[in-house]
Amino acid sequence: MVKVKYLERPKLNTAEKIFFLDFLNGLKTTFKNLLRKTITTRYPYEKLTPPKRFRGTHAHRVKDGKEPPSFTVLEKFMEINEGESRCVACYMCQQACPIPTLFKIEAVQLPNGKKRVTRFDMNLLNCLYCGLCVDACPVDCIIMTDEFESATDKRSECVIHMDDMCERGVSFDRRRYNEPDRIWIDDEVREKLWGQIRWTYTR
Amino acid sequence: MELLAVTIGIVIKSLIFIIGMFLLAAYLTLVERKFAGHVQQRPGPLHVGFHGLLQPIADALKVLTKEDIVPNFVDKKLFYLASLMAFVPAIMILAVIPFGEPIKLFGLEIKPYISDVNVALILALAFGSISIYGVIFAGWASNSKYPMIGGLRKAAVLIGYEVALGFALVGPIMLAGSFSLREIVEAQQGFFGAFIWYQPLAFVVYLFSVLAETGRTPFDVQEAEAELVAGYNTEYSGMKFGLFPLAEWYIATFVLSALAVILFFGGWNGPHIFGALSPYIWFLTKLFLVFMFLLWVHWTLPRYRVDQITEIAWKVMLPLTFLNIFITAGIVILKG
After folding, report:
1. pLDDT for position B95
2. Nearest to B94 by CA among B16, B185, B6, B173
3. pLDDT tens digits, B184-221
């Protein structure tokens, strides 16, 4: 049973009725807003930098010495040179994806017995940018970058491939790898907005 | 021969007034959009020209070159007539509005008004009342439910506030003793001669009536975009659509602000600090301030319900104007 709380409408007193005091209050508010600075971002000319956790176009991290321990375990079965995508073709991203058919992943066995990823295509037209593939990746390979301008003229251009994903990952890591992983620029900004943060709740 | 000269003079003057009004209305759209933007902390039009100064021209080009769709279920004659009926009376009020005193220029006496008739105020009210037909015709001829509801609502609001508006104007008329707008202005000499000090009640009623007549926000039920798609002009497109907001939001508001300045703020009276141009500068400054005040109210307040609006018109505004008339008449009789 939903509880309904009934509220009395605030009654106006005589002065407020005669002199339209509530009208005047509203006019004061709009006048204050009129004098304030506009908050518009003039988009094509100035662009905001999204937060680091922004879920934009996908990218691949490359083998550059910063891999997690799980990659060093898998590495000896893989034929991956320095600077190439660290994808191990485990299909975990495809398993996690709500629309698995948007992935086209292929890998071959080389004559020396090692595995090499030959194809990693994503059809972003079907992607809903949920980020589950990023969570599923065991080697921290597939990531989502802060690039959001992915509109193109042709449908075929919306399919991204391994090589351009690697480029995007390199550029993203160059720009933002060292940035602390939080949504706001600084805790000070957050405190300005919401006041002092109490991390432990005490009664 | 003299008649011909007078006719040619009036035609030229009317053309100047009409074309000037068109250009002004185009730029009033820019003023309104800039103002609305800054009230909501956006910059408004910004990219066409310096800070959007060429935006009205771009808008006019767009509206004029758009495909003009006439649905085949409408009443064609009324449908075409309605946009004109809304637009022409609004601009016709300009015929009686004086913008200043006659001046001598190159040996010619130039009157900054088209005609100075002794029933100017009545004419202005009559033209204002004709524009109601445009709205009703538009609503009826569109043969569609939203325009119909919008037209009926606008008719209800207009009828209520026309009455209040007419009675509100009785006060200034009694004080000035004339219907001629020029004589009303001449009756208000000096800062404390302006009728706003003697007729505050009439001024408040007048403001409310202007907001209702021009369909600005507390009373914009006829095109309440949340309930009716666009009100009575839902089925219109192209320039036929453009005429409605142009007439109602800009020309009517401008002209009624001019009437407010003439009736309550002493028209072109003011200190002669700008030389020969000072009456015009004073008049246009006051006009602009009143217009901006109306915009300010528009972009502040939410919308009333339909029944509340007519209730205010008949139960609050009309008695207030009667009270104002009785008080004014008593004082006029006592003081002689």
Report:
1. 82
2. B16
3. 888 888 777 778 888 888 888 898 888 888 888 888 88
Between chains, do B41 and A36 touch, taking CB under 8 Å as contact? yes
Whether chain B has a CB inside 8 Å of the CB on A155: the answer is: no
Tell me if B295 sits within 8 A of B250, measured CB to CB.
Answer: no
Q: Determine, for residues A42 and B42 on separate chains, whether the beta-carbon distance falls below 8 Å.
A: no
B26 touches chain A (CB under 8 A): no
Alpha helices in chain A (DSSP H): 14-19, 21-35, 69-75, 92-96, 132-136, 162-176, 187-194
User: CA B170, B175, B177, B182 torsion: positive or negative?
Assistant: negative
Query: How would you label A45-63 residue by residue, b for 16+ Cβ within 10 Å and e otherwise?
Result: eeeeeeebeebbbbbbbbb
A104, containing H or E segment: strand A103-109
Question: What are the tokens at B8?
Answer: 């040619």
Q: B42: which chain A residues are within 8 Å (Cβ-Cβ)?
A: 38-40
DSSP letter for A78, please: B
pLDDT, one tens digit per residue, over B106-163 is 666 667 777 777 888 888 888 888 878 888 888 888 888 888 888 888 888 888 888 8
Domain boundaries, given as residue ranges, for chain A: 58-176
Closest residue by Cα to residue B93 from B115, B66, B64, B68: B115
Strand partners, A104: A121
Handedness of CA B10, B16, B20, B22 (dihedral sign): positive
Q: Does B299 touch chain A (CB under 8 A)?
A: yes
Residue of B nearest to A27 (CA): B300
Which of B143, B179, B136, B139 is CA-nearest to residue B158? B136
**Residue reference for tokens 């605030």:** A10
User: Binning pLDDT at 50, 70 and 90, where does residue B305 land?
Assistant: confident
Residue in the block written with tokens 């009716």 = B228
Decide: helix, strand or coil at residue A115: strand
- For the stretch B183-212, what's the b/e string if a residue is b when 16 or more beta carbons lie within 10 angstroms of its beta carbon? ebbebbeeeeebbbebbebbbbbbbbbbbb
Q: Which CATH class is domain A58-176?
A: alpha beta
Token pair 């008339």 is at which residue?
A: B325
> Mind listing the pLDDT tens digit of every residue in chain A (203 residues)?
778 888 888 887 888 777 778 888 888 888 888 888 888 888 888 888 888 888 999 999 998 888 888 888 888 888 888 888 899 988 999 999 999 999 999 999 999 989 999 999 999 999 999 999 999 999 989 999 988 888 889 998 899 999 999 999 999 999 888 887 766 566 677 777 777 766 676 65
For the beta carbon of residue B62, count every other beta carbon within 10 angstroms: 11
Number of Cβ atoms within 10 Å of the Cβ of B297 = 20
**Of all residues in chain B, what percent carry a pLDDT higher than 70?**
98
Helix (H, G, I), strand (E, B) or coil at A44: coil
